[in-house]
Design brief:
The protein is an alpha+beta fold. About 25% of the residues are buried.
Amino acid sequence: MAEQTTQAHAPRAHSTDRRPRRDTKRRDAAPAEPKEFEELVINIDRVARVVKGGRRFRFKALVVVGNRKGKVGVGVAKGQDVQTAVAKATDVAKKHLIEVPVLNGTIPHDAEVKVSGAQVLIKPAAPGTGIIAGGVVRQIIGVTGVNNMLSKSLGSTNKVNIAYATIEALRSLVPREQWLNAPKTKKSNAKKEA
């Protein structure tokens, strides 16, 4: 009995330090390389399929990817959990990238496109205006590299349809060099005057 009491009152070597020891640096971690595309999750929905035994729930993700240099893509995919759905949607978006013509930080001309019930109108804006857009359109334009633009979303409020309508509006843009009556550059005007 005397031995038990001496063991119970014996001081512990680490009694004051109760926090677990954390290593602040990882030795095996490689330096992170910068990603080429920025990924942005716009929306996640829980969807159900009705089967004989009840309902089967899955997740549907809407993701936009862009490199802020004129490339952008939108993807929609379903998965058993949120991470799977987002990963699948990101892959779909990367496979369907489009090139957006950017002229002085804005788009070259206005465009209006209707996809299903959603209608999106986009217009160029003067420097310093910023991106004036709501919700889905703002997030998509944010990863394209366009800094000044006006937009209006008309019709349906379905986020997937608005995203597809925005992508179609951006796809319909024609670069200034390909316009039929494109204004001549200063050099060509100087030759005419001489």
